[in-house]
Amino acid sequence: MMHRLVRAAAFALAAVLPVLAVAAYPERPLKLIVPYPPGGSTDVLGRALAEHLRKELGQSVVVENKPGANTGIGAQAVATAPADGHTLLLATAATMVLNPLLQPKLAYDPAQLLPVARVAVTPLVVVARPDGEFRTLADVLTKARAQPGRVNYASTGVGSSLHLAGELLQSETGTQMVHVPYKGSAPALTGLMGGETHFFIDSVASSVPLVRGGKLVPLAVTSRERLALLPDVPTVAESGVPRFEVSTWFGIMVTKGTPDDAVARLNAAIASALRDKAFRDTFEALGLIIPEPLKPADFSALIANDSAKWAPLIKAKKITLD
Question: How far apart are CA 78 and CA 90, in angstroms?
Fold first, then answer.
């Protein structure tokens, strides 16, 4: 009789333990790795998200900046962390899509990063000088078709999303333009305003202040629909390139092997932040779009679709990063 009671108690305890383990997550403070320097828009986004997660999860979330290698250093730190959901990465499309397509040798294995939730979308805007010859994207394309190789555009470097947006524009329009890479958005904008280039496909967040100050003219936005920040600026699709749509994103990753229940709880906590009006208003005013929440499987599918979109172009253009 006593033996049967002990066995029954053991079975009951085994049934309860998984519940206790799930209920305990997170059982200690979390770490959010931001693969960019402190003070930038990505860092601000990460810190705001960390505060929301603290409220939702009941544990502090420490932000740690690990810039370098086009997000690779931060990605490596999370890819090799314990798979317990306590180390998070604020990844970008470069981390999960572009770097694997562009770099033969990565410092991290993207397969060791598990998608949890998309956090924000960054639309792009085509900008030119107010004293230049272009007032619309149609003006740019007309000259590019009539004079191949005579129109040039800036980017933040070979293989950047802004460079690839320019390559996609050429591919979709059958034009041939000259790519002028810079080391970052600030020097690219300086070069544009100084007359070194004709146009720049930039993030909305960095260009809008210059547009509002009259130092740049917006020609088109790369999103599917017009943006609330620039309601009078047409989309690239409206400007005669119907299939063109480009944006980048930020999302949270954890180490592969993290328990499903921990991933689900993180996803729900992030969804709560995305639905928070103050959170949305803050970042949409800075040029980010706070999207509707995605489940982990849907976020994984989005990453796969992005890879399928960019892979043929990168291969055709023979774009690589050493």
Answer: 10
Closest CA to 156 of 213, 203, 196: 203
Question: Using CA atoms, how far apart are residues 235 and 169, in angstroms rounded to an integer?
Answer: 13
Q: Which stretches does DSSP call E strand in 175-286?
A: 178-181, 199-203, 217-221, 247-255
C-alpha to C-alpha distance for 198 and 220, rounded to whole angstroms: 14
- Round to whole Å and give the CA distance between 138 and 144: 10
At residue 16, does pLDDT exceed 70?
Answer: no
22 domain residue, yes or no? no
Its domain, for residue 180, covers 123-221
What's the token pair of residue 290? Answer: 């706070």
For residue 210, the domain's CATH number is 3.40.190.10
Residue 63 φ/ψ, nearest 5 degrees: -90, 130
**Helix axes of 41-57 and 260-275: crossing angle, nearest 10 degrees:** 110
Give pLDDT tens digits for 108-124.
Answer: 999 999 999 999 999 89
> 16: exposed, middle or buried (C-beta count within 10 Å: 0-12, 13-18, 19+)?
exposed
Query: CA triplet 226, 231, 236: central angle to 5 degrees?
Result: 40
**What is the value of pTM for the model shown?**
0.86
Q: CA 90, CA 160: separation in Å to the nearest integer?
A: 18
**The total number of structural domains that make up the chain:** 2
